[in-house]
Design goal:
By secondary structure, the protein is mostly helical. It contains one helix and no strands.
Length: about 80
């Protein structure tokens, strides 16, 4: 049929090592993801607070610019 030899039996020590390393890698990844998620959530909180302040400042600047433009237009209309 095919010219392939019969598969070789893998040592139980090698199987155990592979599964152990896979498990450790998955657990490390979950721990690392959890840690990074907490860190990112804290950063987002700070950014939301700063965004509110920045939005207020931009709204005030837009209001001043609009008032200034209206005053200039009134001056030109006279």
């Amino acid at each position: 049929m095919s010219g392939l030899p019969a598969p070789v039996r893998v040592s139980p020590l090698i199987k155990f090592s592979r599964w152990s390393l896979l498990t450790v890698g998955v657990l490390y990844g979950a721990f690392h993801q959890s840690r990074l998620s907490k860190k990112e959530a804290a950063i987002r909180e700070v950014e939301l607070k700063q965004k509110a302040i920045r939005d207020e400042k931009l709204a005030a600047e837009k209001k001043i610019a609009a008032e200034k433009e209206i005053a200039e237009l009134e001056a030109l209309a006279k």
